Amino acid sequence: DGGITQSPKYLFRKEGQNVTLSCEQNLNHDAMYWYRQDPGQGLRLIYYSQIVNDFQKGDIAEGYSVSREKKESFPLTVTSAQKNPTAFYLCARGQGGPNSPLHFGNGTRLTVT
Amino acid sequence: GQNIDQPTEMTATEGAIVQINCTYQTSGFNGLFWYQQHAGEAPTFLSYNVLDGLEEKGRFSSFLSRSKGYSYLLLKELQMKDSASYLCAVRDLYNAGNMLTFGGGTRLMVKP
Q1: B92 with B26: CB under 8 angstroms?
Q2: pLDDT in tens, A55-95
Q3: Which of B64, B90, B100, B108 is the best residue to mutate to test the A interface, defined by the most A CB atoms within 10 Å of its own CB?
Q4: Which residues from chain B sit within 8 angstroms of residue A31, using beta carbons?
Q5: Is-contact B30 B50, C-beta < 8 A?
Q6: Cys staple from A47: which of A42, A66, A71, B26, with CB 3.0 to 4.6 Å?
Q7: If you ran DSSP here, which 8-state letter would residue A69 be given?
Q8: Contact B32, B49 (CB under 8 A)
Q9: CA distance B31 to chain A (A)
Q10: Cα separations (Å) of A96 from A51, A67, A93, A101?
């Protein structure tokens, strides 16, 4: 799993409900990221965190919230305020150096009806 | 801001060579990454360039020209399993957090 685990793989919710996606890493990396991918499109950054108890908005943070209470965990909540929540959500970890790639979890496909 | 452009789709024949181009505009270039993504799966890291020139890794090579804001990924001896999307991503010196900004991806179809 590349040291980063997302669950569940598929998630179905009714419109108007909040839903939380799990992301856990076991490599003691400081940086974690949430991206969203829509069909046939690239990845867009939702939130990121560089240290525990601190996180920053990405390009499309509206309708989402995160927490970083523990280094290994960075859950993403998709709130009812998110207008188009159906998407493929990818969590990534990074070692923090400028030349280090991001490594992604296997993703959660969220469908809201 | 950043702007990253890639062709949307490409088709190539098994055994052939294909070049996937990526152009970018960024205020503080600090590295370019290529990822492979099979349908429904996570992107996996392929290559990294920060200096001009060619980086070779087996059948895959990646080239960078910083003055032209241009990179390409070269895939040799194409195999059917190379059918996937290829994502170009850039890191910007002025973005806190070392995040990557991604292009829209190029979907490569390898035909027999």
Answers
A1: yes
A2: 999 999 999 999 999 999 999 999 999 999 999 999 999 87
A3: B100
A4: 97-98
A5: yes
A6: A66
A7: S
A8: yes
A9: 7
A10: 10, 19, 9, 9
